[in-house]
Amino acid sequence: MLAGVVVTWLFLSPQGFRGIYSRETINQTWRGYKKFFIAENSRTLRPKDGDTVSEGQSYAMLRAVLAGDKKTFDECYYWSESNLSRLRKHGDNLLAWRWKSGEVVDWMPASDADIDYALSLIIAQARWPQGPQANVENYGRKASMVLNDILEKETYSLADGRLYLSPWILEKNINTKLFPVNPSYYSPAHFRKFYEYTGDKRWLELVDTAYDVLFALLNEFNGKKGKGLIPDWCGVDKDGIFYSLEGKSSDFGWEAVRIPFRVGLDYIWYGSREAKKFFNSRFSEFIKQEWLESQKLFCEYNYQGIPIKRYESPLFYAAYYWTLDIHGFPQAQELLEKTREYIKQYPEGWVYQNKNEYYANSLSWLGEALKSGLLKNSYTKNKLHAEKE
User: Fold this and answer.
1) Which phi-psi region, left, alpha or beta, contains residue 371 (left: φ > 0; alpha: ψ -120 to 50)?
2) Phi and psi at residue 27, in whole multiples of 5°?
């Protein structure tokens, strides 16, 4: 059973169902996710490509542990260690990025998946101290090993004095004009939790870097002043200045949409002043004004705030809901109701948009999670250390 508070409000969707609480929506969309996106209860499937990526395994495990679904968590954990672990081939505890047709087709790890993986294991250790059912490493021990390898292989100190999280493994002595940065890979709440768990102050350095990156990009990117949006990707030079990264999107889109969830969790868990500052910035003002003017928000904008393509998604509405709810916008609820318009009901469970939209279904439910109180920080520093010992 899910933790959290049932919120008693009614809504009417285009499908004509009403009186449905956030908690029921979370339960039903989790049923649907397991049915349509977790193949054989262990491998998170991207239906359009027929493959599995480490990000998907981490999303499923985080959702399973928050749902109290130990069976699904353990099955996904076992599959990840059996199929994606780099330990036997590369000697570290990170996850290979992509698996298809029975084998890994890209052994390079992705740091966003690795931090979500570690967090899911830390919460699992606190929630289920009896350990996994499958023949795999204890949750807490594995989390410690993953965190150590993230710090050793996916972080870099640059000339500007900051410690950065790399999107993937780079050579420690890289000689490049621009260091690659994906702002949506930085999660201050994760980093604070990792510090609580390990005592390693490098995690707090990454908290500082996360907000340095975000506030710098809110102000200027590629030599231009923006409207408050954050690019999907960028590169930082030795002086800490941010520019476009060749071959990567410089727009606000399918990567940067995760930033409200990442920063919002820091506010929910830690009451972070930096997080609140972010949600009181031009980022929220842009979203608020766009909504007030047209009652519609799109998925992709350039850095100057011009829509690139005029299409919508429940995932983006969930992220915009987080933004405006934490900002304190009275009409934020309207954005959550927009996500519900995309829900489709099947006997096996509910999905957002359709049964092929892996990414939207992996994250759109977070709007309901915020509304319901599911994401309350139940794993405090004292509890984590008690369970670890």
Assistant:
1) alpha
2) -60, -45
Q: What angle do CA 4, 80, 381 make, to 5 degrees?
A: 45
d(C-alpha 318, C-alpha 316), whole Å: 5
Query: DSSP strand E in the chain: where?
Result: 38-39, 43-44, 52-53, 98-100, 103-106, 155-157, 163-165, 179-181, 220-221, 224-225, 234-236, 242-243, 300-301, 307-309, 343-346, 349-352
Using CA atoms, how far apart are residues 235 and 254, in angstroms rounded to an integer? 18
> Is the separation of the CB atoms in 32 and 79 below 8 Å?
no
Q: How many CB atoms sit inside 10 A of residue 240's CB? A: 14
Joined together, the tokens standing for residue 263 give 């920063």
Q: CB of 128 within 8 A of CB of 387?
A: no
Q: Measuring CA to CA, how many Å separate 191 from each of 97, 159, 270?
A: 21, 22, 11
3-state SS, residue 287: helix
Cα pseudo-dihedral 80, 82, 87, 89, rounded to 10: -120
How, if at all, do strands 349-352 and 343-346 pair? antiparallel
Q: What is the DSSP string of 64-93?
A: HHHHT-HHHHHHHHHHHHHHTB-HHHHSSS
Residue by residue, pLDDT tens for the chain (389 residues) are 333 322 222 223 333 333 346 999 999 999 999 999 999 889 999 999 999 999 999 999 999 999 999 999 999 999 999 999 999 999 999 999 999 999 999 999 999 999 999 999 999 999 999 999 888 999 999 999 999 999 999 999 998 899 999 999 998 766 678 999 999 999 999 999 999 999 999 999 999 999 999 999 999 999 999 999 999 999 999 899 999 999 999 999 999 999 999 999 999 999 999 999 999 999 999 999 999 999 999 999 999 999 998 999 999 999 999 999 999 999 999 999 999 999 999 999 999 999 999 999 999 999 999 999 999 886 665 555 544 54
b vs e for 327-356, b when ≥16 Cβ sit within 10 Å of the residue's Cβ? bebeebeebbebbbebbeeeeebbbbbebe
* Euclidean distance between CA atoms 206 and 325, whole angstroms: 26
- What is the layout of strands, in order, in the sheet containing 98-100? 52-53, 98-100, 103-106
